[in-house]
Amino acid sequence: MEQHFEFTQQISSRTNNLSGLQEFCTNLMVQSPEKVFQSFDFTSLSENSLISLIKRDDLQMKEVEVWENILKWGLAQNSTLIPDPSTWTDDDFKKMKVTLQNCIPLVRFFCLSSKEFTYKVRPYQKLLSNQFYEELLNSYLDPDSVSVYNVLLPRKIVTRSPPLENTAQVVDSLIVDSSIVSKISSWIDKTVDNKFANISEYKFELLLRGSRDGFTPKKFHELCDGKYNTVTFIKIKGSEEIIGGYNPLIWKSSVGTWGKTKESFIFSFKGKNIKDAIISNVKDEKYAIYCRSICGPFFGSDIFITACSESANYTNTWCRKFYYEKEIRKTTDEFSMEDYEVFQIKKQ
């Protein structure tokens, strides 16, 4: 039946008496959407068949691809429209909005990255209600914002690589678990909450662990210099606190140089409870990151980690508000590190 899927699907969708065949077709589309969409003209799907597909939590397709295929289907139902939305009139948008009125609510827009939103959704802004679009836009400007809408959770994508059965396989960490990893992923993608991030989209590659590699600037620079997109987790000794930061730039050994970026942020967690998490975005991007041979991961003087020499253990470690928006600790006292880890984050 897979070889003649288009015919099978069309026959099954014409009657309610072939529910078993309909279920087979839907399951095939859910598990192997690329095969189906490449093998036949999916725009011939009925609206009910399309809805039964895109409402599934287990649809094995990236959300941006779901959105793109819905738009293709909508265009096929309106043959007078051309694909470029910049040429559409208000009437064109109204026509397309009516066509897709039952499909658009099933798209998990809050799961999209900021780049996907900018290039794939914003040109079609008029297909969405003003209030919904404003909330969606705000979710990228303020990752801590909460939507009044019933936001759908990410689809349950099955990773094709070795199965992620436990936290250790998601991220090889002695400090954080999958909930914190997911939260960090959502902040990097500028989504609104940890529940909208898909952990399997990222690979957290361990570069350094203090308890394994030592607590010296020399070892930090040896293992982490030249690496883009790193996140540092620090477990504070004698407490449940976890602090850290995300650096999209490279670390490097130098006499003392500042790294400029508006994408970095620092954070704190009270143990592994993400409800009380604090994210602090960089305020003065000229002083986001500081690199020096006697320093460890150093975020704008707000997370301050130095030693008296490259080969000595860290002696000066504290958090004080300077170049980032918020305080991430209630105290400015020095702290000792129970352990710290640095990961490079890569898209899978």
Structure annotation, total helices: 12
How would a crystallographer describe the biggest sheet? 6 strands, antiparallel
Overall mean pLDDT:
84
Name the strands of the widest sheet in spatial order: 1-10-2-3-5-6
Order of helices and strands: HHHHHHHHHHEHHEEEEEEEEE
Termini separation (Å)? 33 Å
Report low-confidence residues grouped into runs of 5 or more.
1-9, 159-169, 191-197
Instruction: Based on Cα principal axes, name the global outline.
Output: elongated
Radius of gyration: 24 Å
**Helix content class:** 25-40%
Number of strands: 10
Output the structural class. alpha+beta
Strand content: 15-25%
Total domain modules: 2
Any overview of this molecule?
With 348 residues, the chain is α+β, with helices and mostly antiparallel strands. It has 2 domains: 2-141, no CATH class; 167-347, no CATH class. Helix content is 31%, strand content 18%. It contains 12 helices and 10 strands. The chain has helices at residues 5-13, 19-31, 33-39, 47-54, 63-77, 90-99, 114-121, 130-141, 167-170, 178-188, 210-213, 217-224; strands at 202-209, 230-236, 241-247, 257-259, 265-270, 273-281, 289-291, 303-306, 316-319, 337-347. The protein has a 6-stranded antiparallel beta sheet with strand order 1-10-2-3-5-6, with helices on both faces. A two-stranded antiparallel ribbon has the order 4-7. α1 packs across α2 and α2 crosses α3 (33-39). The longest helix is centred in the N-terminal third of the chain and has 15 residues, at 63-77. The two termini are 33 Å apart. Residues 1-9, 159-169 and 191-197 have low confidence and may be disordered.
